[in-house]
Amino acid sequence: MEAGIVATTYNLKEYLQGVIIARKHEIGLNDTPVVAQKRADAFELFCRMGFPHAALEKWRGTDLSRALNYEYQALPEQPSADIDIEKIFKCDVPHFETLLVSQLNGWYADRNNLLQVYPNGMIIGSLAAAFRKYPELVNAHYGKYADDKADGLTALNTAMSQDGIFIYIPDNVTVEQNIQTVNITDFKQNLFLNTRNLVILGENSHLRLVQCDDSINHDVTFINSVTEVKIGRNATLDHYKMQNKDDHTTLINSMFFHQDEGSSLSTNAISLNGGLIRNLSHVTMSGSHSNAEVYGLYLMDRYQHVDNQVFINHAAPECESRELFKGVLDDHASGVFNGHIKVHRDAQKTNAFQTNKNILLSDKATIDTKPFLEIYADDVKCSHGATIGQLDPEALFYIRSRGISEANAKILLMYAFAADVINKISIPELRQRMDDMVKKRLRGELSQCEQCVLNCSTHEHQKVDFKIDLSKI
Amino acid sequence: MEKDQNNILEEVTNSDYKYGFHTNIEMDTAPVGLNEDTIRFISAKKEEPEWLLEFRLNAYRHWLTLTEPGWAHIHHPPINYQDIIYYAAPKRKKELKSLDEVDPELLDTFNKLGISLEEQKKLSGVAVDAVIDSVSVKTTFTDTLAKYGVIFCSFSDAVKNHPDLVKQYMGSVVPSNDNFFAALNSAVFSDGSFCYIPKGVRCPVELSTYFRINAANTGQFERTLIVADEGAYVSYMEGCTAPMRDENQLHAAIVEIVAMKDAEVKYSTVQNWYPGNKKGEGGIYNFVTKRGICKGSYSKISWTQVETGSAITWKYPSVVLMGDNSIGEFYSVAVTNNFQQADTGTKMIHLGKNTRSTIISKGISAGQSNNSYRGLVKVIKRAENARNFSQCDSLLLGDKCGAHTYPYIKAENQSSIIEHEATTSKISDDQLFYCKQRGINSESAISLIVNGYAKEVLQHLPMEFAVEAQKLLAISLEGSVG
Fold first, then answer.
1. Cβ(B478)–Cβ(B321) under 8 Å?
2. H-type helices in A296-405, by residue range?
3. B42 CB-near residues (< 8 Å, 6+ apart)
4. In chain B, what residues touch A382 (CB-CB under 8 Å)?
């Protein structure tokens, strides 16, 4: 076996290379010269690196070989212009006012209106359309933050992605609404999807962004999504990722954040279900006095696998980063956490804190955690902590001694464990919904969503509560 | 204050290696380079039995298939393994009965180090097996130990006198194909120490060996094997200093520890080999494989190390916790200065039920050095109720050094509890201010803080050793602390 190639009987890499060469013109239809060049470079990188494999340090513990063994169809067709996205998908989180931006099989769904310009100057729409209409914006940011050299899948995305969502917030604009992007897959065959998003926040702007991943049918899907986010000077981004996919889905979600001076980022990844999920949060702090909060929660069971990779790159002085990742793993589920904090030589007065806590509920579940500090500056405060354990038997006993069944006591403790991350959600409606979903998830009622992660079967007035008589506590 | 601090740091960075001197003793050396003939030469020189030569040759043939590991956070020019003399021994072979027979120059060397055999014999009751360039020249207290049935001798003597024991345990913890440097050592090891504590014996004295690398261009490849049989206890100490040399010297040792049921082994080491000068030239390359196995239930292995020397340290004293209820401990202080690079840590492999491990690692980086902690805690499915606590702290002195932590944690069952925490910081201005406010000058304050920082580890050293360890710590950070 040649190094760098995952052993498969069917060679997905060759198939994808063939597709990229054969349909080169179609893929690069809207490219600016800058984008085209990046595509060509990335294709070469992908040919050289291939798919990531377990021998790579960043991919220890996550084995893609099974996911790569399926026969996939790449480059799905554009949705037709008369498609009514509302019919396929509707989000109904109570009181959750969002500006919904939909993607269908990777394409920006509203084909009649590819780029919407709002009165405050905000632009939302298709990335491919933005290539044509706003080449100077695209050239200034596209491919600048994602690191094609670091990972074959990122390179593949740059080489092959056709469309995605483009969001531009001009300087000094505070977006009042929550923007929610929903990536829906609905395809008759096994789908291999490369979606690419670009989000640009101008100076002093403010945005709340909720990203949801959702599938309609239950075919095998491989989603390789790359999102680049530029956060301008003194801008603020609240970002949420909700993942509740079915067990046949492989979801590679790579986020690249680039922070300018004084900017502030809060990102929260909540993984409730999914066959194989890998979240990469790559945060570069290039300006001083910026602040990043990276949170994550994962609740996995059956044969699910979740991999959280966080890389905080402190390249400027006087920045602060905080990480908190918590996970509960049951059945045969496996988890990986790899937190890397790098403090550059001149990034003095950095504060960087990282915590990863895990609960294993079965002897078949495994966790592999690697909190990693790489520090070259001396005036820093950095710490990391990792724990692996189980529910506190004394706490369990205490609750049970108050007449609560063991099963309920366990749920209560797990909920309390997860609540640390849930409470970081700053949008009240979303927090309430996630709270309900986590409760349902812990009770085993939520296996996968029929539609969106936020669109579970509970309705507006039906509150989810524990079956616990609170008067007994 | 900042200026004071800078001065102090500068002094720290500029201090020279105090133990740099060189003893002139005639050497009997192997030809430069490594091939099967070299190995046969070493084996013949040491009058080894056929099986040991086979062991060496197998290791060598396996070594040829390996490449040098590149994952550690260290950088050095490629090592030319054909440009090394693999065997050097003092020429005198005569059996020595008393200290008087030892080469006076050697005794002088020990005196300079402040570890005169004579004095140690009288004052501390420590049995010293002094190894100079690979061959044991003197073993003391053998008679006392013999009374208890304790075997403590050089590795070559053990091969001659206790071949069954050596055959049974050698390579059982660190197989000859374990890694690149272990294979190299297995092929060319020259000498080392062997220690066997029989059933139920509590070794009456602390066993100690001094290693010294002495001849230019000779890599030293010792091999230590410690076996504690059922219910036995031993505290073993190893300490090193090396003379000043301009060319890099390669050092690839193996230490194997076997603890049977209810046995306890405490292994302490102070390592102060030549770290290179302040420009980063010279110094020892130290690639060591140290591993212990808690074979029986309720056994315990404890590693304590103070690492102040070597240009490059690549060392991961590990414990395989095989027996149920066994215990592994790792206490480490690693100091790097100038251009030193240390990549050190431990592995705790939990295989048995109710096994426990503790890791305390304190790194101190100064100058332009890089200091990494790299550790693995692994709990397999069968190891129910395993417990681990790890703490690795890094202290940075100066803004050109680096401190890194690479902890790997793997858990495969639900009943284990693993905790890991790490911090990286510098000596805070608050702490310094507090001390100075009470009339303690900057220099003493830094000394106080660094000593306090390392105390958690130093207190695990045997008393005689703790004194030297503190001395070395002080010398390594000369000018400010001590």
1. no
2. 393-401
3. B30, B56, B86, B87, B188, B190
4. 423-425
Rounded CA-CA distance B323/B264 in Å is: 13
Q: Kindly indicate the confidence band of residue B229, based on its pLDDT and cuts at 50, 70 and 90.
A: very high
**At B44, which amino acid appears?**
A
Q: How far is CA A459 from CA A95, A306, B89, in A?
A: 11, 29, 84
In this structure, what DSSP letter does residue A149 have? G
- Ordered by start, the domain boundaries in chain B are 2-476
The token duo for B133 is 């360039």
β-bridge pairing B318-321 and B300-307: unpaired
Q: Are B91 and B27 in contact (CB under 8 A)?
A: yes
Q: Is A242:A178 a contact under the CB 8 Å cutoff? A: no
From chain A, pick out residues whose CB is under 8 angstroms from the CB of B419: 385-387, 389
Contact yes or no for A368 and B409 at CB 8 A: yes
Tokens 């990549």 belong to B343
CA distance B177 to B68: 13
- Residue located via tokens 């292995």: B301
- Given A57, A361, A372, which is nearest B414 (Cβ)? A361
Q: Is A13 helix (H, G, I), strand (E, B) or coil?
A: helix
The domain locations on chain A are 12-287, 392-473
**pLDDT for res A398:** 92
Q: Contact at 8 Å (CB) between B248 and B275?
A: no
CB-side neighbour CA atoms (13 Å) of A329: 30
Three-state secondary structure call for residue B187: helix
Q: Which residues of A219-231 are buried (b: 16+ CB within 10 A; e: fewer)?
A: bbbbbbbbbbbbb
Please give the Cα distance from B166 to B192 (Å, whole number): 12
- Tokens 């074979």 sit on residue: B295
B-chain residues near A370 (CB < 8 A): 406-409
**The total number of residues written for chain B in this structure:** 482
Q: Residue A113's CB: how many other CB atoms inside 10 A?
A: 11
Neighbours of A57 (CB within 10 A): 11
CB A307 within 8 A of CB A62: yes
Q: How far apart are CA B459 and CA B449, in angstroms?
A: 15
| C-alpha span between B309 and A330 (Å, rounded) | 47
- The token duo for B376 is 């693995």
| pLDDT tens sequence across B421-475 | 888 888 878 888 898 899 988 777 877 788 888 888 888 887 767 776 776 666 6
Test the A interface: residue of B410, B416, B419, B431 with most A CBs within 10 Å = B410
How many whole angstroms separate alpha carbon B141 and alpha carbon B124? Answer: 12
Residues in chain A closer than 8 A to B361 (CB atoms): none
Among B397, B400, B412, whose Cβ lies nearest the Cβ of A366? B412
Nearest to B404 among A364, A374, A380 (CB): A374
Do B219 and B250 form a contact (C-beta atoms < 8 A)?
yes
Question: Residue B3 CB: number of other CB atoms within 10 A?
Answer: 8
Q: What is the ipTM of this complex?
A: 0.72
In the structure encoding, which two tokens stand for residue A329, read together? Answer: 């793993």
How many beta carbons lie within 10 A of that of residue A432, not counting itself?
A: 18
- The structure's pTM equals 0.77
Q: pLDDT tens digit string along A61-83? A: 888 888 888 888 888 877 776 76
Candidates A102, A81, A251; CA nearest to A163 is A102
Q: Indicate the burial class of B79 (C-beta count within 10 angstroms; 0-12, 13-18, 19 or more).
A: middle
φ/ψ (deg, to 5) at B56: -65, -45
How far apart CA A229 and CA B98 sit, in angstroms, is 76
Q: Say whether residue A363 is in contact with chain B using an 8 A CB cutoff.
A: yes
Is residue A458's pLDDT more than 70?
no
- Pick the closest to residue A314 from A278, A357, A351, A268 (CA basis): A351
